[in-house]
Specification:
mainly beta; four-stranded antiparallel beta sheet; 0% helix; globular
Length: 414
């Protein structure tokens, strides 16, 4: 539709050049992703664009290269894709689901049709049941995908091809999946949670016991030899290794298979998101505050020291956080439309544009655009060319001895 802009004095017209993009239809808010044994970082911005930084070996960044990047780079959209919905990456391969519910992978995928090749840019992976993909989880040596039919598929390094896992023992379909170093967690629509060891032959499920007073699990995250889960009583529970305090229960001991309640700090009324790393944990509470616990040898708890913590402690200076992710000895958060990171940075995984050894306090990643904006990062905000004595507010006219601005009001929003 032609837009008739009002004429300026003298019959001149505005020449306005906008940068518009179909990406603006995707406005789910920024999302972060990495994996407990990975040094590759991802952000889906508010406009649906995918950015990556950190370790790039095997082509895991998706930008056509196998080199590390210490500052964020943009992953190009495949044909027909206008936004990304979710992303997950590991040391060897990365995966993302597009706005049309297709799954794409890059790096060392090691499954047909990419058994003998490692694509360096997003390449499509078809769902065997013909449905769209709803979730994907990448681990060190295995990957999982859920389809809209509730079918769970997986594939492993060293085993060419994709397999379909059986339906859950309770309920009718799988709703969530998480993958750690050697363990898969799968949540059924019944609210019951099951564990499977990756390298065990066959599909041998063990139910994770529900804590007393709870009836269902609602969220899960799997790290290196330990797990986190949120139950319907609103509490975080943890189980597995606890050598560095990663269970967040106030003490250290070798291991437990029984879920233990993580202490809820004073003033916290509920948890929004959990993330398990290779030896530390992060949790985002409903008021936007981040709490961390566990191993802290590279400052990955963001508290200004390298002292391990056995109970949740607040990360200072972080407020209004909307997303978190943890990798191998580092952490990322989205706060105030910016990405902050802390912990190891030897591969540039904090995205600061440098390769410092580590950071014990949050530092800003070097994004050059507003990650909350729903417009393309490549689009100009606005460009105005006015050839007239009278112009928009803030412009000026100069004559010998005279400089002034007019009083017309012209509002522009991106």
């Amino acid at each position: 539709m032609k837009r008739n802009w009002p004429k300026l004095p003298g019959g001149k017209s505005w020449l306005i050049l906008f940068g518009l993009s179909l990406n603006s239809i995707w406005a789910a808010g920024p999302q972060l992703a990495t994996e407990s044994l990975s040094s590759t970082s991802f952000l889906i911005a508010g406009n649906g664009e995918l950015n990556s930084w950190g370790y790039g070996g095997y082509g895991t960044l998706g930008n056509g290269s196998c080199k590390n990047e210490s500052a964020p780079v943009t992953v190009a959209f495949p044909s027909g894709v206008n936004a990304w919905k979710s992303v997950s990456g590991s040391e060897y391969a990365s995966f993302a689901i597009s706005d049309n519910n297709q799954l794409y992978g890059w790096g060392f995928i090691n499954m047909p049709p990419y058994t003998n090749t490692s694509p360096l840019v997003p390449s499509i992976i078809q769902a065997p049941d013909g449905a769209g993909w709803t979730a994907v989880a990448a681990g060190k040596d295995a990957w999982l995908g859920l389809t809209s039919l509730g079918h769970l598929y997986g594939w492993r390094n060293g085993y060419a091809g994709m397999i379909q896992y059986p339906s859950p023992p309770t309920g009718t379909r799988w709703t969530k999946a998480a993958i750690g170093y050697d363990e898969i967690l799968t949540l059924a629509d019944s609210g019951r949670l099951y564990s499977h060891r990756i390298w065990v032959v066959g599909w041998q499920l063990t139910e994770v016991s529900r804590p007393a007073g709870t009836t269902a699990w609602t969220d899960i995250s799997s790290g290196q030899y330990f797990n986190l889960g949120v139950a319907d009583d609103g509490n975080i529970y943890s189980w597995g290794y606890n050598y560095d305090g990663e269970l967040g229960i106030g003490v250290k001991f070798p291991t437990t298979n029984s879920p233990q309640r993580v202490l809820m700090p004073d003033g916290v009324t509920g948890w929004k998101t959990i993330a398990a790393g290779n030896g530390h944990s992060l949790a985002l509470c409903t008021n936007g505050q981040v709490y961390a616990w566990g191993g802290n040898w590279y400052g990955q708890l963001g508290i200004g020291s390298t002292t391990n913590q056995t109970l949740p402690v607040p990360a200072p200076g972080l407020a209004n956080v909307t997303a978190i992710a943890v990798g191998q000895d580092y952490s990322l958060v989205v706060a105030g439309c910016g990405v902050l990171g802390f912990g190891v940075n030897s591969a540039g995984q904090l995205g600061t544009g440098t390769n410092t050894a580590f950071e014990t306090l949050p530092v800003a990643s070097s994004f050059i655009f507003d990650i909350c904006s729903t417009n393309s990062s490549l689009s100009p905000v606005v460009s105005i060319n006015v050839i007239d004595d009278s112009a928009s507010e803030g412009s000026y006219r100069s004559h010998p001895g005279h400089t002034y601005t007019n009083t017309a009001l012209f509002r522009i929003s991106r």
